[in-house]
Amino acid sequence: MAEVSFSGVGKVYPDGTRAVHDFTLEVRDGEFVVFVGPSGCGKTTALRMVAGLEEISEGEISIGDRVVNELEPRERDVAMVFQSYALYPHMSVFDNIAFGLRMRSVPRSEIDRRVHEIARVLGLEELLRRKPRQLSGGQRQRVAMGRAIVRNPAAFLMDEPLSNLDARLRVQMRAEIARIQREVAATTIYVTHDQIEAMTMGDRVAVLRKGELQQTDEPQALYDSPANLFVATFIGSPAMNLVQARLERRDGGLVACLEQQALPLQDAAPALAGYEGREVGLGIRPEHVADASRNGSSARLRGTVVLTEELGSERLVHVEVAGRPVVTEEVLEVAGDADAAMAEALRTEEGAHKAAFVGRFEAGARVHAGDEVELAVRTDKAHFFDLETGAAIY
User: Fold this and answer.
1) Residues 4-47: pLDDT tens digits?
2) pTM to 2 decimals?
3) pLDDT given for residue 352 in this prediction
4) 285: which DSSP letter?
5) Half-sphere exposure for 186 (CA within 13 Å, toward CB)
6) Is 344's pLDDT higher than 80?
7) Could you give the 3-state DSSP secondary structure of residue 279?
């Protein structure tokens, strides 16, 4: 295996459309890195440039100690697993996995050894004589992976490999792919638009937006310390609660003011002092918003319940709070069409002072739509953002 390095990489199509801009990243030897972002953010283009399926307009891509910009795909020593399984329907599982080795004139005894070894890792030993039509979707995906792994390439490239599977099978295959990657210690770049997939699989996650790398870090670090509004909104399900707040100093401490309500800030970041008297974006994860009737927190918000969602182990409670929502380009881009339409409505005079908060309440909490409730807010876990630049304030 080998590391994959991007240095100032860019991609501009003949019509002038820029798909990737100044992309710089190192994927370490044996590391599993996930590229994630909304459709059209450049993640698949970046992957295809590594594979040689897209020309590189700017910068350099290296695999191991070789710059591969001018190399043909077959010379790059990478294996790609696509969204479609691309199996040969007339061939058995064994022959599909062995195909690349035969094309390289590997001795028959070595092919047999390597195919059986990979089949064991993938749990395909009992299926080697079957044809693709006799396999489930998950089994076909494992065969496609086997065909890539058996070659022992320098790097694996995976482009939305689970998108054709149903939800239950995707969860199962996420764990399978992560296990297999660890077992074979393969340098892997994995592309997905699903942030849950990215968070559960990657050693590190690279978040892209409009062709630019926003942040790269371990999954938990992305969640705990997002670099900007886009990453904060994109990472996390349910999404982070966001509202505009004015920072004021009262009784020697900072408070975040939302309309007529105020939240005292614990352990406020030193950088927040520079925003005193200004509006900032205040972000609170749903797990840090609870039922105040069962929580002794002094930081509280009043609001009206608009929706509850029973999840068995907990209840998600959607509450309308007096406050101005954060409606920026970054937030709207992540929200999607339906939520964007709602956000646009909030820009009206009537809706401009209503912010939606989601809290994680205990299962069986007796709250219903229309109820007035108090929310206990963990302000020590709050995030703050510059509304002009979108950057996080730390």
Assistant:
1) 999 999 999 999 999 999 999 999 999 999 999 999 999 999 99
2) 0.90
3) 60
4) -
5) 27
6) no
7) strand
330 burial (CB, 10 Å; 0-12 / 13-18 / 19+) is buried
Q: Which helix (H) or strand (E) holds 229?
A: helix 229-234
> Burial level of 73, CB count in 10 A (0-12/13-18/19+)?
middle
Domain-located, residue 390: no
248 in the same domain as 131: no
DSSP 16-75: S-EEEEEEEEEE-TT-EEEEE-STTSSHHHHHHHHHTSS---EEEEEETTEE-TTS-GGG
pLDDT, position 314? 93
How far CA 57 is from CA of 42, 61, 71, 76, 193, in Å, comes to 14, 11, 14, 18, 24
Q: Which two tokens stand for residue 44?
A: 């698949």
Q: What is the pLDDT of residues 346-359, one digit of tens each?
A: 555 555 678 999 99
Domain finish residue from 198, 225, 252: 225
Residue 114 is part of which domain span?
4-225
> Do residues 103 and 94 lie in contact, with contact meaning Cβ atoms separated by under 8 Å?
no
What confidence category does residue 335 fall into, taking pLDDT thresholds of 50, 70 and 90?
Answer: confident
User: What's the one-letter identity of residue 6?
Assistant: F
Note whether 287 and 312 are same-domain residues: yes
